[in-house]
């Protein structure tokens, strides 16, 4: 269509933003037929840097890029937004307790949820990347009561892609032959990367690996702590891989997931798999007709049950904490 889609990106001057914006402008977020208009939100101190990135976006001469605007006011930035990528967040600094972290992020995601509620387009889709992503998404969602709850999601696609890549390396098979991997729960160290239902060239992955010890003691912690490994080796946190996962998440949400496979996304629970309704938790999902659906009917063994429960318990604690802070 010729009408551009409005894509709002927060934290636009950050390192994920820098990797993300050029891929959006090139058409990889929504598809090669869709024009996009970028709306960048930054805090006042970083607006000038975002304006610099906007100049570079102009210099890309992207045929699909219909314009770039920079804002320091959430109300203006989310006005008319069709897609919102909430990347900017308050990082945990030394000596900061979890309660302080949730409170600081509440100060960001509550007003952003309100701004989305009052001014975004009717078809708004929100992906929260900024950590703690699941609970930041919950704060934004609960402060946007007029927007269908299913439009708020948090990113576990990077964890999903990491799990696929680790399995591919272990078995020496291309990533294209791996399907049905799942990330359950919170985007945190408690997440559960699940290979029980995964397939490698159509065969069960866990059986193909044939080494439960490797899955429990190497695969799961490696995926869950990959962010720390990247920081150690690269000297900075994951940025381009996170941007790439955000592109994958929104592309699949809008365009659908391939038949015979699923992916992972944190979406509002409907109570499936014993995850309390209303929590924003990662599930195995497919996208059909522009909506995420939880894959139903998977058998959950005892090992998986205890891992899922532990991560979901952490999400429930975070929800209680933000309730007590009056953020939701
Ligand atoms: P940076 O610190 O490079 O950039 C963050 C940007 O957000 C800064 O430019 C800052 O000025 C801006 N910002 C802060 N508050 C804002 C507000 N209220 N409105 C608009 N902009 C605001 O961080 P970066 O490496 O880009 O990471 C961004 C977030 O992604 C972090 O919270 C990080 O923890 C999270 N991540 C999430 C991942 C996931 O899988 N869900 C993986 C990668 C990443 O760690």
TrEMBL record:
Ligand binding (substrate): 92, 98, 131, 162
Residue ranges of domain Lactate/malate dehydrogenase C-terminal in the record: 156-320
UniProt KW NAD keyword: yes
Domain of life assignment: Bacteria
EC id: 1.1.1.37
Residues annotated for NAD(+) binding in this entry: 11-17, 105, 112, 129-131
GO molecular function per UniProt: L-malate dehydrogenase (NAD+) activity
UniProt catalytic activity: (S)-malate + NAD(+) = oxaloacetate + NADH + H(+)
Active-site residues, Swiss-Prot/TrEMBL: 187 (proton acceptor)
InterPro entries assigned to the protein according to its UniProt record, in alphabetical order: L-lactate/malate_DH (IPR001557), Lactate/malate_DH_C (IPR022383), Lactate/malate_DH_N (IPR001236), Lactate_DH/Glyco_Ohase_4_C (IPR015955), Malate_DH_AS (IPR001252), Malate_DH_type2 (IPR010945), NAD(P)-bd_dom_sf (IPR036291)
Protein's job: Catalyzes the reversible oxidation of malate to oxaloacetate.
Protein's name according to its UniProt entry: Malate dehydrogenase
Lineage: Bacteria, Bacillati, Actinomycetota, Actinomycetes, Micromonosporales
Gene: mdh
């Amino acid at each position: 269509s010729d009408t551009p889609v409005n894509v709002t990106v927060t934290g636009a001057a950050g390192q994920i933003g820098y990797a993300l914006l050029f891929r959006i402008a090139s058409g990889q977020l929504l598809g090669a037929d869709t024009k996009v208009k970028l709306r960048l939100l930054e805090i006042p101190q970083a607006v000038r840097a975002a304006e610099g990135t906007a100049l570079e976006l102009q210099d890309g001469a992207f045929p699909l890029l219909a314009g770039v605007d920079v804002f320091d006011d959430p109300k203006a930035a989310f006005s008319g937004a069709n897609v919102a990528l909430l990347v900017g967040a308050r990082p945990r600094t030394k000596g900061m307790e979890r309660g302080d972290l949730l409170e600081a992020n509440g100060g960001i995601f509550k007003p952003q949820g309100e701004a989305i509620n009052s001014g975004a387009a009717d078809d708004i889709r929100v992906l929260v990347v900024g950590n703690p992503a699941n609970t930041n998404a919950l704060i934004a969602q609960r402060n946007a009561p007029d927007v269908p709850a299913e439009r708020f999601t948090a990113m576990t696609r990077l964890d999903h892609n990491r799990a696929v890549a680790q399995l591919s390396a272990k078995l020496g098979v291309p990533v294209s032959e791996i399907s049905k991997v799942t990330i359950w729960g919170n985007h945190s160290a408690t997440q559960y990367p699940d290979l029980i239902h995964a397939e490698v060239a159509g065969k069960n992955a866990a059986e193909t690996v044939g080494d439960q010890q490797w899955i429990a003691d190497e695969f799961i912690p490696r995926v869950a702590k990959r962010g720390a490994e990247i920081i150690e080796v690269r000297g900075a946190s994951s940025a381009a891989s996170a941007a790439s996962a955000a592109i994958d998440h929104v592309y699949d949400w809008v365009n659908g997931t391939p038949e015979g496979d699923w992916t992972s996304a944190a979406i509002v629970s409907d109570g499936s798999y014993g995850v309390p309704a209303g929590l924003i938790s990662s599930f195995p999902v497919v996208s059909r007709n522009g909506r995420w659906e939880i894959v139903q009917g998977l058998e959950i063994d005892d090992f998986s049950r205890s891992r899922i429960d532990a991560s979901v318990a952490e999400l429930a604690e975070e929800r209680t904490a933000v309730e007590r802070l009056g953020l939701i």
